[in-house]
């Protein structure tokens, strides 16, 4: 990482128009940056490929039927309705041209571009399969609303199919759920799938006993919740095991197919676990926009595709471009919501100071992250919390988790309905969001097939055109 070397004042706009800030992404980084610019004398355009702000930490509750999509993913334009200096645009950014300071995007078949004076890139990260992208087909991850709905339908679909199959082996396969990755998301998912099977679905089937479902939490690492340390990791593990979740550590997934996974143990032996439903929560890869920026500047990216930013979260030689949140790499900061929120706000503050007070980028203070701690739920009434040296597990940790998540949910109405949904869940494990459809299970694969077909057709058409041009030229 290089030190900031900003000697130019970039925050000026030609006379007659206001400074233009383009923000890519409506997640934690993008949204909080936009809100921080509320009173600034700038025009903000927030462009994101989803029209909502997604509260990712609660996605697992959508996947397991506790919360509705609306509760954790309110439309961004409604959140920012009263902020007159912001325009929200739905668009998938496919190119950033650093030289002309232009962002290129598309919404469906409509292409458009946005010029900027300052750019905040907060496009987050995707699931990583560590080079085995074919695993995704049978072991989807959980990063988006679509992912959560697909997983919900896959989980519930397995119970439905298990009820009707006459084949014992197939029933066992359908009632085996594997969660790969024992980080916070994996732990939360394992706990919730177990509770769903043992409590919510109790007495709802006539031929199968949902409680007989096998839930396996598996990781190549030797511990559960490694970032939380041994004490909390062991507490989470003990709680999950008490709920009947099988924990398999030091187990490396070497293959995934429709009917199960292949696992390599530390002694080198390879074994197979049959399971229809596999859930991947094992790694992240930053948005490819990071590499695009690195290719045009002197910035570098790390193995996870994150941009090595300078102390002021900007790119070397480009004080007008900030990269924040899951896309940035700085001082080994974790990919968590608070890093994105504080990074987005910091970038917005620097822009405001330079536009309104004529400050230069060279005067920027370095970004300082304030660690507010981390937390994860294990089951109803049980969580782990780590704040500095303080480590708490169990019921008190769960109450803290509840309060913090309610505080950070966007919108009063959402907080109210979420409290109601949680109330129902706590008082008897009722889940009001157990709708599932076949389209949610097969939609992603169908779209991928159509896209592959379209790509092949375009390539064929381009080939035909080349042949035609050559023969005319001849
Ligand atoms: C399941 C799950 C659970 C989590 N739990 C926790 C937790 O308990 N605590 C915690 O602190 N953190 C948690 N995290 C991590 C946290 O959610 C992220 O660190 C945080 O969301 C990062 O914010 P961001 O703004 O960088 O990216 P994101 O919030 O991912 O937002 C990215 C935005 O960019 C948009 N985008 C992406 N590509 C493009 C493109 N090409 N063009 C236009 N727009 C684009 C997306 O639509 C989205 O709006 C969790 C993450 C997941 C997936």
Structure description:
The structure is a single chain. The protein is α/β, with parallel strands linked by helices and 474 residues long. Among the domains are: 19-49 and 91-127 and 284-363, 3-Layer(bba) Sandwich (FAD/NAD(P)-binding domain); 133-282, 3-Layer(bba) Sandwich (FAD/NAD(P)-binding domain). It has helices at 28-36, 59-63, 69-72, 76-79, 145-164, 168-174, 184-200, 229-242, 289-296, 337-357, 395-408, 412-426, 438-473, and strands spanning 19-24, 42-48, 86-90, 92-97, 102-107, 110-115, 118-121, 125-127, 176-180, 214-218, 246-248, 252-257, 260-264, 270-274, 277-280, 284-286, 307-308, 314-315, 318-323, 328-329, 374-379, 382-387, 390-394. The strands form seven sheets. It has a six-stranded mixed β-sheet with strand order 3-2-1-7-19-18, with helices on one face. Mean pLDDT is 93; it is low at 1-5. Bound molecules: flavin-adenine dinucleotide (FAD). Flavin-adenine dinucleotide binds at residues 24-30, 47-50, 56-57, 59, 92-93, 122-124, 142-143, 184-185, 287, 289, 325-327, 335-338, 340. The site of flavin-adenine dinucleotide (FAD) has 33 residues, from α1, β2, β4, α7 and α10.
What's the helix and strand layout?
Layout: E1 19-24, H1 28-36, E2 42-48, H2 59-63, H3 69-72, H4 76-79, E3 86-90, E4 92-97, E5 102-107, E6 110-115, E7 118-121, E8 125-127, H5 145-164, H6 168-174, E9 176-180, H7 184-200, E10 214-218, H8 229-242, E11 246-248, E12 252-257, E13 260-264, E14 270-274, E15 277-280, E16 284-286, H9 289-296, E17 307-308, E18 314-315, E19 318-323, E20 328-329, H10 337-357, E21 374-379, E22 382-387, E23 390-394, H11 395-408, H12 412-426, H13 438-473
Helix pairs in contact: 1-10, 5-6, 5-13
Bound molecules: flavin-adenine dinucleotide (FAD).
Flavin-adenine dinucleotide is lined by residues 24-30, 47-50, 56-57, 59, 92-93, 122-124, 142-143, 184-185, 287, 289, 325-327, 335-338, 340.
């Amino acid at each position: 990482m290089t030190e900031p070397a900003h000697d130019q004042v970039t925050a000026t706009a030609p006379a007659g128009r206001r400074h233009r800030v383009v923000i890519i992404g409506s997640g934690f980084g993008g949204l909080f940056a936009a809100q921080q610019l509320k009173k600034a004398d700038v025009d903000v355009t927030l462009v994101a490929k989803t029209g909502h702000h997604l509260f990712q930490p609660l996605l697992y509750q959508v996947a397991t039927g506790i919360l509705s999509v609306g509760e954790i993913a309110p439309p961004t334009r409604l959140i920012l309705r009263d902020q007159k200096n912001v325009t929200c645009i739905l668009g998938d950014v496919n190119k950033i041209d650093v030289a002309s300071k232009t962002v290129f995007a598309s919404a469906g078949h409509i292409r458009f571009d946005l010029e900027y004076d300052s750019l905040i890139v907060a496009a987050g990260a995707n699931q990583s399969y560590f080079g085995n992208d074919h695993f995704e087909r049978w072991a989807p991850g959980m990063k988006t609303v679509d992912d959560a709905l697909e997983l919900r339908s896959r989980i519930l679909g397995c119970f439905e199919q298990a009820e009707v199959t006459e084949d014992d082996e197939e029933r066992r396969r359908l009632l085996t759920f594997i969660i790969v990755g024992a980080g916070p998301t994996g732990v939360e998912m394992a706990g919730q799938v177990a509770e769903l099977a043992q409590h919510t679905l109790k007495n709802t089937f006539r031929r199968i006993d949902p409680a007989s479902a096998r839930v396996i939490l598996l990781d190549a690492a030797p511990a559960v919740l490694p970032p939380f340390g041994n004490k909390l990791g062991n507490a989470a593990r003990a709680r999950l095991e008490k709920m009947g979740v099988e924990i398999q550590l030091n187990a490396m997934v070497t293959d995934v197919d429709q009917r199960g996974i292949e696992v390599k143990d530390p002694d080198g032996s390879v074994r197979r676990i049959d399971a229809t439903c596999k859930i991947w929560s094992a790694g992240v890869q930053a948005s490819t926009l990071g590499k695009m920026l690195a290719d045009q500047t002197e910035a570098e990216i790390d193995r996870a595709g994150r941009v090595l930013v300078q102390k002021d979260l900007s790119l070397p030689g480009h004080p007008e471009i900030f990269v924040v949140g899951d896309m940035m790499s700085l001082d080994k900061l974790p990919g968590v919501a608070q890093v994105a929120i504080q990074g987005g706000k910091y970038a917005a503050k620097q822009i405001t100071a330079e536009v309104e007070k004529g400050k230069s980028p060279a005067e920027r203070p370095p970004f300082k992250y304030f660690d507010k701690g981390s937390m994860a739920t294990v089951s109803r009434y049980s969580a782990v919390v780590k704040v500095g040296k303080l480590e708490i597990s169990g019921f008190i940790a769960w109450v803290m988790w509840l309060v913090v998540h309610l505080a950070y949910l966007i919108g009063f109405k959402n907080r109210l309905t979420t409290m109601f949904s949680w109330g129902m869940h706590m008082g008897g494990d009722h889940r009001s969001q157990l709708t599932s459809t076949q389209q949610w299970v097969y939609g992603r694969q169908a779209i991928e097939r159509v896209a592959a077909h379209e790509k092949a057709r375009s390539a064929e058409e381009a080939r035909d055109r080349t042949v035609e041009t050559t023969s005319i030229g001849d």
